Amino acid sequence: MSNKTEIWRYIKNYKFNSIFVKNFILVLLLIILPLVGLSIGVYGYYNNLMQGEMRELNANALSKVRDMVDVMIRETDKQSLNIASDQDVQWFLMFPMDYASADDIYNKTQAVNRNINMVVNSSDYIDSIYIYSERNDFVLSTRGNGTLSDFYDKSWHTSYTTNKNDMFYWNELRQGADATGVIHKYISIYRTINPFDRKSEGTVVININVERLGGLFGNVTPERFENVFMVDAGGKVLYNKDPAVMGKDIKAVTPIEYPGSDGTISRPIVDINGIKEVISIVPSEYNDWTMISIVPLSQYEYKIRYLRAFMTIIIMICIIIGVVLSFFAAIRIFRPIKDIIVLMEKPSEWMQSSKGTNNSDEFKYIADNIMKTLDENQEMGKELERRLELLKSAQALALQSQISPHFLYNTLETINWMAVRLTGGPNEVSSTVVALSQLLRLSFETEGNLIPITVEIKHAQRYVDIQRTRYNDKFDVLWSIADEIMDCKILKITLQPLIENAIYHGIKPKTGKGMISIKAYKMGADIIIEVADNGIGIPRDEVVRLNTELSGDYYAKEGQHIGLRNVNQRIKLMFGQKYGITIESEQNVGTTVCVLIPIVK
């Protein structure tokens, strides 16, 4: 049979469990994975490089916007301060117009109007300026003068009355009407006027037209800046190309994060409505405003697409080469394994074909050991047959040994009836014999290591009956077992050693009558059993030593009587290290042994 045919047969029989297939996949991965990983690494590096360059370009462009806005606001603040300091404005605020002559009022107001009109006409973004005298309840503006009640735009007055006592300078985005009644959006900058450092006598309001501001943004920002936000310290959008967005909280408009204390953001590229966007944030250097730009990543991805196509071609070529190399490498690796399979299936034929060869390699060493193992297996088969015969004999002896417990029960029952017949009725001897018989029957006839708590309690009660007879009622036993745990399982012979420990080490040395309290209750997913006595107690250092020993991996020696250590070790072996026995004791007061086991139904 040819090598190709045999390899195909192994692949067909074992499929993906075939060593040939496993080796082929392993070699394939060893060749392809480094090449693919390198390609992905190069792609990722170039992609990150491009994104970093893109973020830097966006930040630089946004910084130009920030600088323009800072210059604009700085100039506006300077103009508002000059207007507030003007002597004619001071006269308008302080002097009651009711006592001034018509010529004085006309000359002063005309001077103020010429001044503020010159400021508006020389600016590309200032729409109007208001000067309000609280004493005269009068407004001077670039669009006409008049009392506040007759003035066409009153929406600014609410902000003034709210903030005049707390701030001397602030700004807000608001809607206001012009002289023709058309509503516009303004960024209004307020400066209260406090002549001689007294309370506010009025304010200067400079209104920046948002539409004109958008035109300035368009002249400074490149075309790719589709979405630019100007945000105040409270997160309110002061400017955006979409009028419906202005005045809203930036977090309600777009899912971006503000920069941390180091001025950076953890996610400069975010997914917004299924489109990857590049976020750039530049804070103002003059006030508490922030400039934010959101640019689609798709504007830069044409370079990445070229790189992605080139890397895909390289990876496909690597995969084809890897498949061919892996196939031939797997055939060479599989050849010794094929010979071992022949050896295992037909050892006699292999022995005949290998005669006369003097190869001294790893395969020869493996073949010799396989033949040695086959010989040893034949010997072990013979030994196994002999041991099976011995096992059958042991099983027969085990059947015979089952007679002994039944003989013991029958004998105790005979003693019981003899005691009853001699005394003419039940007596202490007959009661003790019955208790002993029931105790032995529970011990021998219950199957398995785990038994219901009800059965374990019956076993312990029979033991208590025998001991109370022996010690002439030297102690009383108080049982307090929760009904909800009666059907739960417990290790066989758990309570009896604990009660025995309480009798022999606590109650027996005590003067007077003793009391043993046995409690069992549920706590969470566990059961707690407490066996307490009012005996002589245990010294503190001995309690510490015993608890340390019980918490470790103590193993009772073979032949040692059943005691606390034995019960503790059986619990740990059955349920795990978190369960077991702990001891609390105080000399001349008593001892409490606490058992923790899980709830097992």
Automatic annotation (TrEMBL):
GO molecular function: phosphorelay sensor kinase activity
Transmembrane annotation, as ranges: 24-46, 309-334
EC number: 2.7.13.3
Listed name of the protein: histidine kinase
Species annotation: Mahella australiensis (strain DSM 15567 / CIP 107919 / 50-1 BON)
Top-level taxon of origin: Bacteria
Cited PANTHER family: SENSOR HISTIDINE KINASE YPDA
InterPro entries according to UniProt: Bact_2-comp_sensor_kinase, HATPase_C_sf, HATPase_dom, His_kinase_dom, Sig_transdc_His_kin-like_C, Sig_transdc_His_kin_internal
Signal peptide positions on this chain: none
PROSITE patterns cross-referenced by the UniProt entry: HIS_KIN (PS50109)
Keywords recorded for this protein, A-Z: Kinase, Membrane, Transferase, Transmembrane, Transmembrane helix, Two-component regulatory system
GO CC annotation terms, alphabetical: membrane
Reactions the enzyme catalyzes: ATP + protein L-histidine = ADP + protein N-phospho-L-histidine
Domain Histidine kinase residues, every copy: 491-601
